[in-house]
Amino acid sequence: MENNNKKAKKNKKRSSENPTTKNPNNNNNNNNKTKNNNDQKTNNNNDTKNNNDKKNNNNKTKNNNDKKNSKNNNNNNSASKKTTNLKKSSKTKFGIFCQGLFWCGASVAFVYALIPFIFWYFPEMCTFMIFSNRFRWPPLGQLTKPSEHGLNHTRNFYVNPRRNIQIGVWHVLPQNLADSNLGYSEYEQSLSEHKSPVVLYMHGNTGTRAGWHRIEMYKLFSALNYHTITFDYRGYAESTGVPSEDGVVEDAQFLFSWIKQRVSSDTPVILWGHSLGTGVATQLAKNLCNQGTCPTTLVLEAPFTNIVNATYHHPFLIPFNIFKDLKLKLTSFVRRSGVEFASDESISSVTCPIMILHAEDDFLIPIALGKKLYDVGVETRPKDSGPIKFVPFKAVHGYGHKHIHKAPELPGILSSFVQTCVEKGF
Length: 426
Description:
The protein is α/β, with parallel strands linked by helices and 426 residues long. The protein has a domain at 129-423: 3-Layer(aba) Sandwich (Rossmann fold), CATH 3.40.50.1820. The chain contains 12 helices and 8 strands. The protein has helices spanning 2-17, 24-121, 123-131, 184-193, 212-223, 245-260, 276-291, 307-312, 324-334, 343-346, 367-380, 410-423, and strands at residues 154-162, 165-172, 198-202, 227-231, 269-274, 297-301, 354-359, 388-393. It has an 8-stranded mixed beta sheet with strand order 1-2-4-3-5-6-7-8, with helices on both faces. The radius of gyration is 51 Å and the shape is globular. The termini are far apart.
């Protein structure tokens, strides 16, 4: 017993002297605690790392969002700038347009305000506007080469009505002679050898004998097997001189005589005038009838009664419609130019058959003027005169002032009228 107690005391003493000495269970517990602590540290580190990663991700996301927002803001800013610039540009363009429109209107108003003074102080300007011979269309193209204008069977030549006046002329062959390969020297001979009708064509103001609608009319005559003699009055195209009423009528009369010298006595010769050319043709027909050498027939396409009435109804003077008295005064100034082309007076002396062609939608010379000229002819011509015929063309066709050549019935109307005139001995 005593020994056991001594051992116990010794062990107790040793344990108290060696406090670091542990029993196995305690060591295990301590190890577990240490391990748990390490695990907790590891977990804490992992959590910290995860938190840091999350923060980094959040920062990246935030940076990306900031970049996107910045980009979107830049896009929005650029879009808004573009919109603003477009608005400013459209406003600027609209402002420029309005300014241009204003100045154009002011210029036109200024010109129209000057017209009464121009007509009064410069009557020669009225003459220039009536003939408009310097307005050439087409501007290019050789009149010496009719083939460039689609007329392959056509001769260009020149005649001299006066010593110092030279006018350009085309002779278009009828279709039945187009393939005969005639030399230029044989063109005149064909006039006497073949008794085909001959058309002396007098064109309107502006342009030349090469005007497109005029060429289409020549082709129509050729298809009917008619010769066509067409020319440019003095002062037009390459023809020399200055146009005047008596001068252009003299040119036409010279060519009529030229034709009559080369055709047989029974060859029909037709005078055809268009627009201003109707004034020339009517006065020429009057002169010829008074001399006893009437043409076979007179055809007037889009005619007027006289220059004063034609001027009054011209679209150029439409703005003066609100000032009727001023418009009448303006048109009276035209008389001072010395140009009248008074067809309503001349027609009373024309005893040959007359046919008047006019489109209802003619905006330059209203059909009412053509109808009035017809009425004057019916009332004032001698009783033994040839027939007078008025042929209107419906507005729905859109022939206007210079495209009656498009009417499919025109060849039949013309050939029938000419044939009737020939059969009745006119």
